């Protein structure tokens, strides 16, 4: 014998006959939920104290499931994850200069004739949680970091140059920039592409670009250009390659990790060739609109639609 009371056995048999198993009966009333006023308050306070806090960390601190934390944050607190954009650190003086130069460029410039050249950079994958899209404080200040593989290219509304690779350890000074990039690639490409048409050369104000010898070289070889003293400082958000093309190229060529530099090069070349004329044209034609947005932001960071 098991030593179990007869009444207990009878109840177990009856429950099995009714339910088909020996578990508990379904409970009546509302299901228990973690979406309580207390938990919502805790999650909201965590996000307000540190908008960069991860939902994983909040879940660990509160003892709640990460999916529950995410659901409360999005569905009940209207918090959304926003990717942090990279941007130059702008002082008030920088903003004023950007404002004045953008106004001047709007007066003198037409998108169709702009030819832009620039090098790559790597955006970070950072997000913050907020009920409103962040503005100035969502800009991650960036400065130029050493690159193991530097890639240059030029685009205009009607085409693109070949990619130009600069090997690790090569210092891009004015002499190298003029000989290996402008003279070797840009000059012959532009002569073939534009023919007798007038076009405008645009570059940022990096030392190799703004040096007197480079400015003189460009003045002697190209029909028109934007002098370094007229280009808005700290403005990758105004360069078509920076604000559009590089991110497209990076997303496509670096979707999977590469074992070596040669593999990365091959992928970059492949995806560069696959860039459509529409993608390149859209990037170039967005330039004037961005100048206007920068003016509207008084030379500060601006949002695009």
UniProtKB/TrEMBL annotation:
Give the matching SUPFAM superfamilies: Homeodomain-like
GO CC list: nucleus
The primary location reported for this protein is nucleus
The chain positions of domain Tc1-like transposase DDE read 143-265
What does the record give under GO molecular function?
Answer: nucleic acid binding
Its localization reads: Nucleus
Q: Which Pfam families match?
A: DDE_3
Q: What InterPro entries does the database record attribute to this sequence?
A: Homeodomain-like_sf, RNaseH_sf, Tc1-like_DDE_dom
The protein's name: (pine wood nematode) hypothetical protein
